[in-house]
Amino acid sequence: MKQLFSGSYNGSVRNHTALEPVVFFLTGIPGLEHVQHWISIPFCSMFVISLLGNCSLLYVIKTDTSLHQPMFFFLSMLASIDVVLSLTTMPKTLGIFWFNAGEIGLVGCLVQMFFLHTFSIMESAVLLAMSFDRYVAICHPLRYHSILTHSLVAKTGLVALMRAVALMLPLPLLLQRLSYCHSLTIAHCYCEHMAVVRL
């Protein structure tokens, strides 16, 4: 919340403190505002292809019981993360490109930032787990199913999620308590962390 101070003098000074919600303005791609309608075509195409590809992968892994193995469970985690990351940034980006809808509230900005960073951290943890899966498959093929059980895969995914949330949860909580005194314009398509901190 942004605190505004206005004082008037009628023989004595009266302080009025009003609370207004902070609204940021996302500009899109700096310097390319005049061609953003054209830039939106490849962005939208990649967004749709990403959603279709990842959702198809999730559907195939869920329906085909022969794919219910650790490697494919990790692939489904990675596909889910990609879907969340796409949905975190692209709808707002396309809204800016198509409708010049660059306004985003403080809470929306912090939520977007939290999901973006949390799932990016989780993605790196899942990639690490996938490399461990390949190591076990190559170096210990006879013990593969006894080492990488379904329970261990689920626990690995849960630990990756908890680690990412624990690392990123303080960020929006601390940023929410700050006051924003400069221009509330962010020269990005999404709420970029350092741009918000500079404000």
UniProtKB/TrEMBL annotation:
Record flagged with keyword Iron-sulfur: no
First-listed, main subcellular location of the protein, grouped into a coarse class: membrane
Transmembrane listed as a keyword: yes
Domain of life: Eukaryota
Domain G-protein coupled receptors family 1 profile: start-end pairs: 53-199
Transmembrane segments: 38-60, 72-90
InterPro entries associated with the record: GPCR_Rhodpsn, GPCR_Rhodpsn_7TM, Olfact_rcpt, OR51/52/56-like
SUPFAM superfamilies: Family A G protein-coupled receptor-like
Membrane topology: Multi-pass membrane protein
One GO location term (cellular component): plasma membrane
Keywords, comma-separated and alphabetical: G-protein coupled receptor, Membrane, Olfaction, Receptor, Sensory transduction, Transducer, Transmembrane, Transmembrane helix
Molecular function as annotated in GO: G protein-coupled receptor activity; olfactory receptor activity
Location in or out of the cell: Membrane
Family label: Belongs to the G-protein coupled receptor 1 family.
Official protein name in the record: Olfactory receptor 52K1-like
